[in-house]
Amino acid sequence: MTNPSESVGAGSSSYDAIFIGAGINALGGAILLGEAGWRVLVLEKNSTPGGSIRTQPLTLPGFHHDIGAINLNLFIGSPFYQEHKEALARKGLRFIVADPSVGSVFEGGRFLGISTDAEKMAQSIAEFSPADIGNWQNWTSDFQECAPPLFQLFGSPAPETETPDNPFGNLDDAPLSLLPKLKALLMESPRSLLSSRFESEEMRAMIAAWGLHLDHAPDIAGGSFFPFLESNIDALQGISLAEGGSVKLIEAMTARLHDTGGELRSSTMVEEVVVENGRAVGVRLENGEVIKTSRAVVAGVTPSSLLNLTGDQLPAPIIERAHQWRYGPGTMMIHLALSDLPDWRAEEARQSFYVHIGPSLDYMARTYREGVTGRLPAEPYCVIGQPTLYDPTRAPKGKHVLWIMVRCVPAEIKDDAAGDIIGRSWTTEVRDAFADRVLDKIESYAPGLRDKILARTVHTPLDLEALNPNLVGGDLVAGSAHLDQFYGNRPFPGHAHHALPLPGLYICGASTWPGGGASPGSGSLAAERILADNPISRQT
User: Fold this and answer.
1) Distance in angstroms (rounded) separating the CA atoms of residues 457 and 124
2) What is the 3-state secondary structure (H, E, C) of 283-342?
3) Does residue 193 sit in helix, strand or coil?
4) Left (φ > 0), alpha (ψ -120 to 50) or beta: where does 37 sit?
5) Cβ neighbours around 297 below 10 Å, total
């Protein structure tokens, strides 16, 4: 890692590209440019790279907690990983498959989950609805047909021009017979689609729970694609974890960046993008240092942060859109060091990597509505990760960590839907009171959990934003993924393919197409665009 005190003179241009931020997208894009022979510099505000992908001993020594991303299926499925699999493995990146992977708990000690064992899963489904065995088989058959064009869509640039007659223009090459199914997956709400596909409320809830990992509550149009993709992928291959914690992915990517000749400076705050003669030519750091680039400045930031870097250098429509950029619901993260795993009433939940607490579509819709209107949800929606079931290296022998993601938690508190919490800001008392509500909810399905807690750390939505400025208000995807901020509208209509209307300036990250998640898809597409804009290779 380059010493932060090393500098490049204000008049030099020793770099072909400078990336602002060292999240997974910036690192992925920087690696691809480095492999193309470019001299690349990555600047990171925090003391370590990775953005939301970090692993730290948040509770007690020897307990390793993923601060954010823990499920790495999106990365495993990315073209970037397929191209760099062997190189990253040489850097120490190893994956563990969690299977059974995910499921939901219900009243009465019942559980409905997903595993790669088709017979076992059919037996589980039959306890709720025998008819849904066939419905699930149809669901998985649709995946075989629909996955290729969907993956092609998410791996391709979004259009530079609006196409109101066909909002997903990259589906034009799909067979005509598939278009109704594809458009339903991309346009319908989870409630609408799943109610037409499955008989039991539990089956619908189990699949729809994936939607709230983004900001797709059951009644949000366009919220069906992720539950469709993730539920099917889980059934085919389980969920992939990085052995030792998700930070191992970032460490391997950073090592690969260095192999290409790229540099990374941590603890380095970029104050502004330097513009000369109508072109982005470098950056000015907080300490006044100016670093020049000959080809590209790539901002891995949100639209609102972009304005802080560029001032009035962008066109008025871009500035207006950035001011209007809408963030999704906030998140609370609770990290527990445990003497043992929870004693779930449902035996199957004890073997599942993820356990969702969202027992009905109405439950999730209500929690979402409360959260986005500034109310602390009376009944939290929870994703409980049990990584040490499959990766015991994350805790001392015989001990465990619990990863709890609580979605739809407001950054600005207007009210408490249950009427019990009085405070209207994230004081220590309010934080602990709401965290206790979450633990109460989990204990209703896993009695005695508190007796197993050795230590806990809680991050409020504002804490998450402090850890990573792109998580505004605790929004994990750096901007709502509803249809008005999706595909060609993400983030700027007419400029969705990562090039901004200021020559030399580009943007990548979760706020850009194809959106959030632990995948370098945006960074890869940005690198593709940058190379296309600079077709003549750098002279060495």
Assistant:
1) 35
2) EEECCCCEEEEEEEEEECCCHHHHHHHHCCCCCHHHHHHHHHCCCCCCEEEEEEEECCCC
3) helix
4) left
5) 29
Q: Side-chain half-sphere of 334: how many Cα atoms within 13 Å? A: 25
Q: Which residue has the tokens 């954010």?
A: 68
Distance, CA of 468 to CA of 191 (rounded, Å): 32
| Contact (CB, 8 A) for 416 and 427 | no
Cα separation, 188 vs 184, whole angstroms: 5
Question: Hey, CA dihedral for 117, 123, 127, 131, is it positive or negative?
Answer: positive
CA distance 494 to 315: 13
Which residues on neighbouring strands pair with residue 416, listed in sequence order? 376
Domain boundaries, the chain: 15-52+245-326+478-533, 122-235
| CB atoms near residue 286 (< 10 Å) | 11
Is the distance from CB of 405 to CB of 442 less than 8 angstroms? no
Measured CA to CA, the distance from residue 247 to residue 55 in angstroms comes to: 5
Site of tokens 């400029």:
495
Instruction: Say what the pTM is.
Output: 0.94
Q: Which two tokens stand for residue 415?
A: 């009210």
Based on the number of CB atoms within 10 Å of its own CB, is 403 exposed (0-12), middle (13-18) or buried (19 or more)? buried
Determine how many CB atoms are found less than 10 A away from the CB of residue 188: 19
Yes or no: say if 11 and 506 are a contact pair by the CB < 8 Å rule.
no
* 340 CA to centre of own chain: 28
Residue-wise pLDDT tens for the chain (540 aa)?
333 333 333 344 589 999 999 999 999 999 999 999 999 999 999 999 999 999 999 999 999 999 999 999 999 999 999 999 999 999 999 999 999 999 999 999 999 999 999 999 999 999 999 999 999 999 999 999 999 999 999 999 988 765 545 566 667 677 888 888 999 999 999 999 999 999 999 999 999 999 999 999 999 999 999 999 999 999 999 999 999 999 999 999 999 999 999 999 999 999 999 999 999 999 999 999 999 999 999 999 999 999 999 999 999 999 999 999 999 999 999 999 999 999 999 999 999 999 999 999 999 999 999 999 999 999 999 999 999 999 999 999 999 999 999 999 999 999 999 999 999 999 999 999 999 999 999 999 999 999 999 999 999 999 999 999 999 999 999 999 999 999 999 999 988 899 999 999 999 999 999 998 899 999 999 999 999 999 865 444
Question: What's the CATH architecture for 15-52+245-326+478-533?
Answer: 3-Layer(bba) Sandwich (3.50)
Helix axes 118-126, 131-154, angle to 10 degrees: 120
